[in-house]
Specification:
Blueprint lengths: L24 H21 L4 H30 L5 H22 L21 H8 L2
Helix pairs in contact: 1-2, 2-3
């Protein structure tokens, strides 16, 4: 395999994420595509090097698990708009946690072509109301 294709111009962010409740499946898909391209290229470069392949496979396994978990929580959020407040809060916290872990995994590529800094960053607040509450503390 070869390096991920680099475009001549930086990718324009499709949107900016401010809160955990802004995250959509499209955001997860974009991050997954970016990361998968790089991990495939890395695995290819280290074919025949067991330790490097293990490290790459470990990162692939962890990030795919996080993406699967995140997609599940996003689907459940959409399927259950009227769920109890405590369940909705737990789900949003799970989304925020999984997203922030994925952003940590992809952060070493933040200076790479195509990295979407407007979306792929740590989200401190679940929603605008949580941000307002935290500013009053």
């Amino acid at each position: 395999m070869t390096e991920p294709a680099e475009s001549a111009e930086p990718a324009e962010p499709e949107r900016t994420l401010h809160y955990a409740d802004d995250i959509s499946a499209a955001d997860v898909d974009a991050l997954a595509a970016f990361l998968d391209d790089r991990l495939k290229a890395l695995a290819s470069r280290h074919r025949g090097q067991p330790e490097e392949q293990r490290a790459t496979l470990g990162l692939v396994n962890v990030t795919h698990h996080l993406m699967s978990s995140l997609r599940h929580h996003l689907e459940q959020r959409s399927a259950r708009p009227g769920e109890a407040a405590a369940e909705a809060l737990d789900r949003c916290l799970d989304i925020q946690r999984d997203w922030n872990l994925l952003c940590e995994a992809v952060s070493p590529w933040r200076d790479a072509e195509g990295y979407d800094t407007a979306r792929w960053h740590h989200l401190q607040h679940l929603d605008a109301a949580a941000r307002t509450r935290s500013s009053h503390c």
